[in-house]
Write a structure and sequence with these properties.
CATH topology of the largest domain: Rossmann fold
Radius of gyration: 21 Å
CATH class of the largest domain: Alpha Beta
Distance between the termini: 42 Å
Helix content: 40-55%
Shape: elongated
Number of helices: 12
Number of strands: 8
Length: 276
C-alpha cells in the first residue's frame, strides 16, 4: 500500500517540475488526484492541470498549504521570499515541507515559514519522463515516515540519492540539476556538425540521439570506468583518436569543469540571497 494513499499534497507553484511531480505521483498511483492541490496565480494554468490530471486547483497559495500534509515549494527562487511571507504559519504542525527551489537554503525556508520539518530536493528535467535524478536532504525533525514518503515521491520521478550535508545540494544543482543543459548543448553541437558534413538535420539528429542513448545504456550496464570504455573505442591512429585529440586540444574537459563550477557558485549565491 502506498504511504501517500490518504495524504494530501499541496503544490505551491505549478510549473514544469511541479507538473512532472504530479504526473509521476499519479502514474505510480501513489495517491488519487483529489488528494493533490496545486496553486498558481494564473487561473488558466490551474484549469489546465485540473483538466489534464483531475487535481484541485487554486490561485491561493495559502489555501493549498493549509489543505496539505505535505507542502511542495515549486516556485522561482526570486519569488520565494514573498511566498514564504505569505505562507508563514500556514503549515500544519506535523506537516512536511518539500522544497525544489534552486539554491534556497533550508534555514531560510524554516525561518520564513516558522516550521522545522523541511526536505530540500534538487531534481532535474528528465523527471518529466520518470528518468530524473533527485538529490535530497532533510532536517532532523523530519520523521522516518516522512522520509519514506519523500522517497516514494522522488522514486516516481526516477532515481534518488539522500545526503546528510546540505552543501551537497549546491553541488548536485551544478552537476545533475543543470546537467541536462550541458547534454542538450553537446547534442546540438554534434547535430550541427553532422549537418556541416552533409547529413540532413533529421538524419543527423537521429544518429546523435541514438548514439547518446546507446552509449549511456552501455555505460550503465558495464562495470568499466568511462575511461576504459573510451579506450575500447579508440584505436591507435584512428578516427576516434584524432577526434579526441582535437577535443583535448580545445580544452573540452577544462571548459566543462569551469561551467559546472560556475553553476555551483551561482547556486551558492542564490542560496545566500534567499537567506537574507
Amino acid at each position: 500500500m502506498s504511504r501517500l494513499k490518504d495524504v494530501t499534497l499541496g503544490f505551491i507553484g505549478s510549473g514544469v517540475m511541479a507538473e512532472a511531480m504530479i504526473g509521476g505521483i499519479l502514474n505510480e498511483e501513489l495517491t488519487a488526484p483529489e488528494h493533490l492541490i496545486a496553486s498558481d496565480p494564473r487561473a488558466e494554468r490551474g484549469d489546465e492541470l485540473a483538466k489534464r490530471y483531475g487535481v484541485r486547483a487554486t490561485p491561493d497559495n495559502r489555501e493549498a498549504a493549509e489543505a496539505a500534509q505535505i507542502v511542495i515549494l515549486a516556485v522561482k527562487p526570486q519569488v520565494l521570499p514573498s511566498v514564504l511571507e505569505e505562507l508563514e504559519g500556514a503549515i500544519a504542525p506535523q506537516g512536511l515541507v518539500l522544497s525544489i527551489v534552486a539554491g534556497a537554503r533550508i534555514r531560510a525556508i524554516a525561518e520564513g515559514l516558522e516550521h522545522s520539518a523541511i526536505v530540500r530536493v534538487m531534481p532535474n528535467t528528465p523527471a518529466q519522463l520518470g528518468e530524473g535524478m533527485s538529490v535530497w536532504t532533510a532536517t532532523d525533525t523530519v520523521t522516518n515516515e516522512q522520509r519514506l514518503q519523500t522517497q516514494s515521491i522522488l522514486q516516481a520521478l526516477g532515481e534518488e540519492v539522500f545526503l546528510e550535508d546540505e552543501d551537497y545540494l549546491d553541488m548536485a544543482t551544478a552537476l545533475s540539476g543543470t546537467g541536462p543543459a550541458y547534454v542538450f548543448l553537446f547534442m546540438e553541437a554534434m547535430i550541427d556538425a553532422g549537418v556541416h558534413l552533409g547529413f540532413s538535420r533529421r538524419i543527423a539528429q537521429q544518429l546523435v540521439l541514438q548514439t547518446l542513448r546507446g552509449s549511456v545504456d552501455f555505460a550503465r550496464q558495464s562495470a568499466a570506468h568511462p575511461a576504459e570504455l573510451r579506450n575500447m573505442v579508440t584505436s591507435p591512429g584512428g578516427t576516434s583518436a584524432e577526434a579526441l585529440y582535437q577535443l583535448e586540444k580545445g580544452g573540452f574537459r577544462t571548459v566543462l569543469s569551469r561551467a559546472i563550477w560556475a553553476a555551483y557558485q551561482k547556486s551558492k549565491y542564490l542560496g545566500e540571497l534567499s537567506s537574507k
